[in-house]
Fold this sequence. Notes:
The chain is of the alpha/beta class. The chain is 40% helix and 15% strand. The protein has ten helices and eight strands. The protein has an eight-stranded parallel beta barrel, surrounded by six helices. Phosphoenolpyruvate binds next to strand 8. Phosphoenolpyruvate (PEP) binds at residues 13, 15, 170, 175-176, 213-216, 234-238.
Amino acid sequence: MPHTFETPVIAGNWKMHKGPDAARKFCREFAQVAPAQNRTLIVFPPALSLTVVRADLIEHDVGVGVQNIYWEEDGAFTGEISAPMAREAGAEYVLVGHSERRHVFKETDEETSLKVAAAMAAGLFPVLCVGETIEERKAGRLEEVILRQLGAGVKTLSDKDFQHLLIAYEPVWAIGTGETATPEDATDAHTRLRNRLRERLGDAADDVPILYGGSVKPDNAGELLAADQVDGVLVGGASLDPRDFARIAAA
Ligand code: PEP
């Protein structure tokens, strides 16, 4: 079925923070300050807190997702969760290829491709994360790196599948560092990604949301969201505080 995401998309990645109790507390507080909606709000809690967040925030029209999946449906893969399991537990979205998966856990382009395919097969919306390290940026390799990661991630997709895909441009040097890309940096990278999508999809490329991520805070969210080609934000640290996340969601 065709799907269009309402933009801007405001997504919070809690990383390995907030078990069920802390998640419940967040939801209680967020519910008091949640902004009126004409946007897509998503929270990515740790998988163990997913059902809590879903139950508590569904009436506030907040979607939930998992931070990672394995590509097999089930089997002897200790410690992993599959896309159908995440879907059954209420996840609608999944982060794929987050920089911490790529750089801390050494996830490869090939693995991101398998995960995007598994997400699509299970009816999850994958948020494919791409981004260059500071060394790559300084060496003038921004475009090469992000287009390689994009190409690998979408390798198995049909044109129709792109209606269910989101992309997050997250420069590695801006994640958790307090250093944010300027709105111009974001527009520059997003335009390169969009142009690559356009080669394949034509005008339908405009319907694939491209989010910016990297030290988004309440006081810089507005200018980043206003930047050309930026369809939303993926927020790490600042999404842990319900008031900060609500301010970003209202930006
Ligand atoms: C992230 O985890 O995707 C992220 C962008 O983190 P932070 O906002 O803390 O930089």
